Amino acid sequence: MSDEKQRKRKFKARMTENDRYMIEYLWNTEKMSQSDIARKLGRSQSSIARELNKGNTLDFDNLDRRTLLNMDIHARIKYSAQRAQFMTLQSQPTVGQGLKLTDDVKDMIEYWINVEHWTPEQIIAGKVLDIDISVSSIYNWERRGLIEIKKHKYHTKHTPKERQMIESRRAKQREIHRLREELKHKGELVRHSIYERSQVVDKRKQFAHWEIDLVLPSKMNNKRYLDTTAIMTFTERKTRFTALSLVKSKHTSDVLDAFKVFWEKYGKAVRTITADNGSEFISWDFLEHVQKDLGVKLYYATPSAPQQRGTNENRNRKLRDWYPKGTSFKDVTQQQLDEVAFKMNNLPLTRALDGKRPLDVFDSGYKTMQRYRRAYEKRKLKMLEEKKASQDNHDSNNKQ
């Protein structure tokens, strides 16, 4: 036999379920011989013979060998593709189990966890088993029901005191939520935590959700800032579009003036704003202007958690390419900041935007938002007109 033929036989694919149904038809209905079926399917005659024996549904154990051989072969073998497929799958080792989860290994794992109170991590670290397996393998075997583990053995149980503390914290959170809802119902100002923010915002699925921060000048040796100026940065979460406003000082009136510069340009593209807990943003004047006057919900990140505003922090670092640390902002103009913002938004972002420019993505998102907004206003106006017409008809009927 040539090397080429040996190579072909060596890499022959396994018998599939479709092959078995083809054998069932050719053997039971067409009454073809094993050699003819082998040639038709491109397999060896011995593989067809093994397959027929595997899927045979007839039992002739009561007959002697001579009588059995004298019978027509199609009469003593009735092939079932379904039975053969079942026998094949049943004989195959379970994926992930292989030869590692033997009865001895199973008993060892269950003993050390359920009796000795070890965790799967401790079993692996202590090298209790003679085979090389991972912690995840033990958990996978337990999930699939291959081993029995009493879960409370490796899950922490709280003491009565700990349970009382947990319930106390939960009761406090429920009370905070109740009070917050009452204040909102009365129309009073409420500071919203970032954890109240919608998942649509978190996953960047919707346009017009911004993050805000202040970039301050460097401090001198006496830990005072070089000057009172600062740069207010705004970053749209989905598009990474950045806007910059010059702040004369951290006084509330100056902060509001800088915010108004941003609002005049991009107010129609704002749904929510997320800020840190800096004094300039948590002031009631700022909160009142944003939430009450402008009708925009303002969320506050957790203190000392800049990663919750990672988009804004990233753009702030990029801003340092133009204004390195130690730079004073007292001679910077708003026009210069607009030029820097344009350059930042004109840079393609390979990872975040697949090579697109924030400027282009922002323009597309803004146009889409305005289109939906016009459609919404149109539907709203139509509903008001229909409501008014219905009310007029009702009043007319009452007069009659």
Question: Which SSEs are present, and which pair or pack?
Answer:
Blueprint (H helix, E strand, L loop, with lengths): L2 H8 L6 H13 L4 H8 L3 H10 L10 H6 L2 H4 L4 H11 L11 H12 L5 H6 L9 H9 L16 H26 L6 E2 L5 H4 L6 E7 L14 E7 L5 E6 L4 H15 L5 E4 L3 H4 L1 H10 L3 E4 L9 H10 L14 H12 L12 H42 L1
Give keywords.
Nucleotidyltransferase, domain 5; alpha/beta; 6 strands; six-stranded mixed beta sheet
Structural write-up:
With 400 residues, the protein is of the alpha/beta class. It has three domains: 3-91, no CATH class; 103-153; 192-364, Nucleotidyltransferase, domain 5 (2-Layer Sandwich), CATH 3.30.420.10. It is 52% helix and 8% strand. The protein has 18 helices and six strands. The chain has helices at 3-10, 17-29, 34-41, 45-54, 65-70, 73-76, 81-91, 103-114, 120-125, 135-143, 160-185, 199-202, 252-266, 279-282, 284-293, 310-319, 334-345, 358-399; strands spanning 192-193, 209-215, 230-236, 242-247, 272-275, 297-300. The chain has a six-stranded mixed sheet with strand order 1-6-5-2-3-4, sandwiched between helices. Strand 3 and strand 4 form a beta hairpin. It starts with a helix and ends with a helix. The relative contact order is 0.06. Mean pLDDT is 81; it is low at 4-11 and 93-99.
Strand order of the largest sheet: 1-6-5-2-3-4
The Cα radius of gyration reads: 37 Å
Q: How confident is the prediction overall: mean pLDDT? A: 81
CATH topology of the largest domain: Nucleotidyltransferase, domain 5
How many separate domains make up the residues?
A: 3
What is the helical fraction, as a range of percent?
40-55%
- Can you tell me the CATH superfamily of the largest domain? Ribonuclease H-like superfamily/Ribonuclease H
| Largest beta-sheet characterization | 6 strands, mixed
Strand content: 5-15%
- Architecture of the largest domain, according to CATH? 2-Layer Sandwich
Tally of individual helices: 18
